[in-house]
Amino acid sequence: MEGRKKVKDEVFHLNTPLLESINMSKRVGTTVYLKMENTQPSGSFKIRGIGHLCQQLARHSKGVICSSGGNAGMAAAYAAQKMGVPATIIVPSSTPPLVVQRLQDQGATVKIVGKVWDDANTEALKLAETEGLTYVPPFDHPLLWKGHASMIAEVTASLGPSVKPGAVVVSVGGGGLLCGVIQGLKDVGWTDVPIVAMETVGADCFNAAVKAGKLVTLDDITSEAKCLGAKTACKQVFDYSQSSELTIISELVTDQQALHAIQTFLDEERVLVEMACGAALAAVYSGVIVRLQNEGRLPALLGPLVVIVCGGSTINMEQLTYLKHKLQS
Amino acid sequence: MAEVFHLNTPLLESINMSKRVGTTVYLKMENTQPSGSFKIRGIGHLCQQLARHSKGVICSSGGNAGMAAAYAAQKMGVPATIIVPSSTPPLVVQRLQDQGATVKIVGKVWDDANTEALKLAETEGLTYVPPFDHPLLWKGHASMIAEVTASLGPSVKPGAVVVSVGGGGLLCGVIQGLKDVGWTDVPIVAMETVGADCFNAAVKAGKLVTLDDITSEAKCLGAKTACKQVFDYSQSSELTIISELVTDQQALHAIQTFLDEERVLVEMACGAALAAVYSGVIVRLQNEGRLPALLGPLVVIVCGGSTINMEQLTYLNVCHA
Fold first, then answer.
1. Domains and CATH numbers, chain B
2. What does pLDDT average to over chain A?
3. Pfam families in the record, alphabetically (chain B) (predicted)?
């Protein structure tokens, strides 16, 4: 591959398509727009925030280090490669060989440490300090949120000056994407646009915190939506949930509903996304939006819905078959 | 009104395809266009030029051209009429109607529908949208090459461009686009499937030929005669167009591999282009000396297409795996 210059102002993410989904619009009764973050380099929205963070912190660094084998790791590896700095990804031994291979194909050095993510993360933080590497957090950093916020500015431009969303639908893992969306809505003066924040049962740290009125730590992640699998939401997203200035509606779907969503999306929109993304899509396919309207929590006459299709590359046809066997029997 | 209806689609590097070919492979993701395929580029441009104050547009394609015509007409606020033969699946009719078009079922095969569309265009004063044979279509399609240039940056030139060929509209657009940016020396690998190979047949015969029938499952490549312009291009010494064929099995394998590795489901017609990588056509052309051994980056046009779903994929597997 040809070499890349370190360009100070270069962004690594793309202005992704905003596509109207006729099928989803029919289901909801209002126009549904899909922000296709699955078409980002490295396969998910994460390149926005991680690209921004790396540009700000890692430009003259000895390299970046990350403890995610998933989409954050792929984004970190991609950003580092574009910047011409080394990337080290620490993963636990439970990580599938295919994941390790994909990270290596993206130019990263992969080290296998410990049995669970916490072990890998502890090692990553340690090496960041001892080796002088830039640590790339998965979701809890203002630079990540600032990077993610760019998607809302793009949505504004795509919709045109006279169109305002009736609501935005996002998946929530640790809250990084949600913080970015909120930041983006603030930037364009749309803080009154409600956000429907979707999680799966068993990977619902944000919903648990909202219900408890304080941050909680889940004992375990029991959902198949592994990429939503943060045990504790970040403090910023919890603070947002308590703010009277914002309308954040925290909802849950089951793994079965998330799976049904990714199957329907594949069939009707011809794109295969992860279960984590399916949580957001299920807001439409499993009638969450319509129920919220019936409950009076969203307006009956709803403006256009903007669904963030976060994407995710840790899914393939074999994984889809596995999920079907596990969840549908 | 200067509005264009198509998007500047992502150009994505495919690591998996790059490993297979031994050079960087970029994918121009035309599947992410509104209406599901690259066709909105040319049809959007043609409608903007010809249909702005028209009584409406009329088209005889139930497939991607029809969807693009319906979409463009809806954006322009003019009526769209799509004439389709009775063999058209109800799902296709429904999708066109959902896009705001009036659908009329006429005749048994495409030729019947097209004759009716041309007739109504004249009697009703509607703007006829041709599927592939019009300079305005090619000019519209050409925009994708300008975008590729901008995405690659000033110091990167493709080693080759890979496209699927039906009637030749996309290929003409790609050639137009390469001319516009001064890249006429970039070879084009023009892919078709056996049984939907009117361009390859013309190149082999040294003249335009009309196929008796379309026997490939890649129905969207199913033009029986290539357009004259694309044949003329194939005879030009200024251009390097390499016409290659793959089987339906190879196109099917390509769309399954693409779905598994790139997480996008495309039509068989698109699979023909992808099979240039997955079935080793590029590597073979290098071994034969028809492409350089040290090849610059490959740009594959992922034309997309919306007449595919999981049921159709299952059907194709049952018939052709």
1. 11-38+134-320 (3.40.50.1100), 39-128 (3.40.50.1100)
2. 95
3. PALP
Specify whether the CB–CB gap between A38 and B263 falls below 8 A: yes
Q: Report which of A129, A134, A124 is spatially closest to residue A79, judged by C-alpha positions.
A: A134
Answer whether A29 touches B (CB < 8 Å). no
Out of A14, A102, A317, name the one closest to residue B260 (CB): A317
Smallest Cβ–Cβ distance between B263 and the set A16, A263, A271 belongs to A271
**What DSSP character marks residue A121?**
H
Whether B194 contacts B214, CB under 8 Å: no
Inform me whether the C-beta atom of residue A215 falls under 8 Å from chain B C-beta atoms.
Answer: no
Nearest-Cα residue of chain A relative to residue B13: A41
The bridge status of strand A195-200 relative to strand A64-66 is unpaired
The better pLDDT of the pair A227, A211 is held by A211
pLDDT on residue B321: 65
B3 at interface of A, judged by CB pairs closer than 8 A? no
Cα B26 to chain center, whole Å? 17
Q: Interface pTM (ipTM) of the complex?
A: 0.96
d(Cα B74, Cα B206) in Å, to the nearest integer?
A: 42
Burial category of A141 from C-beta neighbours within 10 Å (exposed 0-12, middle 13-18, buried 19 and up): buried
Q: Which two tokens stand for residue A274?
A: 């992860």
Per-residue tokens: B317 = 């597997």
Residues of chain B with pLDDT under 70: 1-2, 321
Of B9, B156, B265, nearest to A17 by CB-CB distance is B9
> Do the Cβ atoms of A17 and B32 come within 8 Å?
yes
